[in-house]
Amino acid sequence: MFSKLKRKLKKKLILNNSRHIKRFGLIGTKIESDGSDVFENCTFECNGENNVIKLCGGVNLTNSNIFISGSGNVISIGKGSYISGATFWIEQDGNSIIIGDHLSANSDDNFTCIGGHKLTIGKDCLFSTQINFQVGDGHTIFDAEGKIINETEDISIGDHVWIGKRATILKGVRIMNDCIVGAGAILTKQFDETNCIIAGVPAKIVKKGVGWKK
Ligand SMILES: CC(C)(COP(=O)(O)OP(=O)(O)OC[C@H]1O[C@@H](n2cnc3c(N)ncnc32)[C@H](O)[C@@H]1OP(=O)(O)O)[C@@H](O)C(=O)NCCC(=O)NCCS
Fold first, then answer.
1. Count of domains in the chain?
2. From the CB of 202, is ligand 1 less than 6 Å away?
3. Tens digit of pLDDT for each residue in 150-199?
4. Which of 40, 86, 171, 203 lies at a C-alpha separation of 20 to 30 Å from 10?
């Protein structure tokens, strides 16, 4: 089934005819590709209207699952990115998951965006396995006056960020360019410094003035 889709993607294609939409579970969702992108063994469960999955050229997306429930959502994957075994999970309207060029994401990474928010990842990033990004907690917490105290917030990851195995990146996190996130870290806030190592639970800056290469 997916070899047919792959063949179609060899041509410039906007996948929006009703036959394909039903067959691939892409209701209300267009896939945009210039034909140089490869989808292999991916599943889609998309419902809503005006959703777009944009592959920016030379993208290799394998063994991944894409779930979209809502309208006006965007997933954009930058040029030359290699992503395997990922889950993209979007709920409600107006969310965007924007990934820069040349991401390498190994397996079992989860990109969750809900409540009309934005998860942005810069270019040249390297993600190990079992990393979770979630812009919201999934359930609301109220204070004594009934005010929500755990609002969903955007996540922003800079360019050339290396994230170690099993790190969790929660709502409102910002990581600047050229940083490293240690294995198992749980990030809960903004880190406004470039070239540092962020590690631990809850994560803190443990080293400054460092660089890294693949
Ligand atoms: C983040 C990392 C790269 C840092 O390595 P490093 O520069 O050699 O760091 P150090 O071992 O000198 O540790 C510096 C401090 O941070 C702490 N630290 C380092 N990694 C940590 C982690 N993952 N969680 C909690 N604390 C950590 C150390 O205990 C040390 O604390 P101290 O100064 O109080 O003694 C490494 O520890 C790490 O987590 N590597 C795993 C990366 C990975 O998942 N790779 C998979 C392949 S992509």
1. 1
2. no
3. 999 999 999 999 999 999 999 999 999 999 999 999 999 999 999 999 99
4. 86
In terms of DSSP H, where are the helices of the chain? 2-10, 18-24
Q: What is the CATH number of the domain that holds 100?
A: 2.160.10.10
Amino acid at 4: K
What is the rounded end-to-end Cα distance, in angstroms, of the chain? 35
Atom from ligand 1 closest to the CA of residue 165: 44
The whole-model pTM stands at: 0.91
Q: Which atom of ligand 1 is nearest to the CA of 167?
A: 44
Compute the distance between CA of residue 83 and CA of residue 126 in angstroms, rounded to an integer. Answer: 10
214 domain residue, yes or no: no
Judge if the beta carbon of residue 183 lies within 6 A of ligand 1: yes
pLDDT attached to residue 24: 59
Q: Which residue range is the domain that position 150 belongs to? A: 2-208
Residue type, 160: H
At residue 25, the pLDDT reads 63
Which residue's CA is the closest to the ligand 1 atom numbered 24?
A: 200
- CB-ligand 1 contact for 180 (6 Å cutoff): yes
> With contact defined as beta carbons under 8 Å apart, do 51 and 76 qualify?
no
Residue 213 within any structural domain of the chain: no
Place of tokens 């039903």: 22
Q: Within the chain, which residues score under 50 in pLDDT? A: 1-2, 6-21
Which of the listed residues 131, 186, 197, 201 should we mutate to test ligand 1's pocket, taking the one with most ligand atoms within 8 A of CB? 197
Instruction: Look at residue 189 in the predicted model and tell me its pLDDT.
Output: 98
